[in-house]
Amino acid sequence: MRLFVFGHGYVGQALARRLDSWQVTATARTSEQAAELAALGVTPILTTDRAALAQALRETSAILITAPPGADGCPGLNTLIPALADANAFPDWIGYLSTTGVYGDREGGWVFEDSPLSARSPEAARRVSAERDWLEVGRGMGLTVQIFRLPGIYGPGRSALDRMRAGESRRIAKPGQVFSRIHVDDIASGLAASIARPRAGAAYNLCDDEPAPPQDVTGYAAELLGIPAPPEVAYDEANLPPAARRFYAENKRVSNALAKAELGWRPMYPTYREGLRALGT
User: Fold this and answer.
1) 272, 165, 157, 271: which is closest to 222 by C-alpha?
2) DSSP 160-205
3) Does 104 score more than 80 pLDDT?
4) In whole angstroms, what is the distance from residue 261 CA to residue 63 CA?
5) Cβ neighbours of 122 (radius 10 Å)
6) pLDDT tens column, 234-269
7) Could you read off the pLDDT of 132-185 as tens digits, one per residue?
8) At 207, phi and psi to the nearest 5?
9) How many CA atoms lie within 13 A of 67 on its CB side?
10) CB neighbourhood size of 43 (10 A)
């Protein structure tokens, strides 16, 4: 079995580890990136080499697209669809990684896969467009496309523990504010569950079971490390940069019930506490 990853980053590597018996091919934009992929045991394909892309896709069972869309749309779609057509290839599964940012702000309310999409930033609006484009192309070409909406991702090297050790943590408190999150290995297990049970046109939220205030996560990380937590700072007094303010402008609780019901998936780390404890050992 072969996995093809467009944008072999943090999540792509986690899925490759999960599918450890599979061969993995991934796109590279430069010869330097190709060398880095080869060092990981991944077969690199330059995005500009359409013939090589087509050949690789003929032998591919599953495709994962992780690269974010730009002003010209999803680079994965723009690159892969012509190559799939050249190859006359119909992989069993295509997964597109999106974001729960497509739901916008719900003032702390719950969102589900059938909730209206109400993106509040240009980046999230591009995700909405990319989701629509992938689903439309999937229907038009008979491809089994699934969408995965992800919240904040953490895991080895990218967690509240790492920020605490680096002295970069702040405990910013905004009344009623919560965020959903997910451990990278739980994303990988959710994607693997979908590969085993593909459903064309499906969209799934992959997240843990407990949306939580960010200051609680920071405080728990400090407790695990046995060091004092940073003092709480009120949101209005935190002097956050514009990007962080946009982040805090969205407040919602994301449901993972559909992925559990349809895929039989359960997060190994149902809350940030289990996830951080595992990372801290």
Assistant:
1) 165
2) HHHHHHTT---EEE-TT--B-EEEHHHHHHHHHHHHHS--TT-EEE
3) yes
4) 23
5) 10
6) 999 989 998 888 889 999 999 999 999 999 999 999
7) 999 999 999 999 999 999 999 999 999 999 999 999 999 999 999 999 999 999
8) -160, 170
9) 23
10) 15
